[in-house]
Amino acid sequence: MIAVHALERGDYTSDLLEDMIGQEDDLGQLASMLDSMARQVLFKDRQQRLLRTVIPIGVSLSAEKDFNRLLETVVLEAQEITNADAGTLYLVEDHQHLRFMIVRNTSLGLMTGGTTGNPITFNPIPLYKENGEENRSNVASYVALTHKRVNIPDAYEADGFDFTGTKIFDERTGYRSKSFFAVPLENKDNEVIGVLQLINSKDAETGEIVSFSSDDVLEALILLASAALDGYIREQRLHQEIAKLRIEIDEVRRARQVAEITDTNYFRDLQSKATEMRRRKSSKT
Prior knowledge:
Elements: H1 2-9, H2 18-21, H3 26-63, H4 67-82, E1 84-93, E2 97-105, E3 110-113, E4 125-126, H5 139-146, E5 150-152, H6 164-173, E6 180-186, E7 192-202, E8 209-210, H7 216-262, H8 265-284
Antiparallel strand pairs: 1-2, 1-7, 2-3, 2-4, 5-6, 6-7, 7-8
Helix pairs in contact: 3-7, 4-7
């Protein structure tokens, strides 16, 4: 019965029947059949969920031309998929720091960055310390530097990271930051271009804060978000290069036009007359 209820909830795993599957009797055969059917059902459910969720998200991201709205979509969809109470998106700038681009916290009604018009007051997170060492004490900077994901069940009990800033934020707002999930967003050259961080995944039934768990839909969103960001950044870089090239071309064209004018006999004659007039004026004085 436990396995059946687990299948209904969508969290069935084969270890629920492992004690019976190995038995060489009717009960063992029944358990094996149930396990096989359960895995097929879960596989089909995952496929249907991918089709229902990922395709619309992919279309939305690929069609979005507003960079701020694109970033918002990434965060909001990630929160929806993981049932996360809060989400933050950082972008890597100059390979030196992480800039806060989107900050959302549903419980606190916090919405800054993006299209909200509300400025983000948090300072960028440095990727390196003043002595040149990598800043691996912060979760987001660690993820950006190592290309590794971080999944923390409880920040207040975690080792290896400095959550001083998080605790100060909690004390000031009355919030309780508990579970963390941070993932690097990479371009096609395997360079980290951003970091997506989610906080406080909630159990859909009880509302209890639980650990984050990855699934096919979240994995697909991460790939789509990375590709969308990479494409937009490359497009903006291309526009900047084209604009710079146009300026350089205009400067060359102006220089050529000036040279063409100054090389004419008419211009030389004007220069000669101007020189003669200045000479006469100076001789009279």
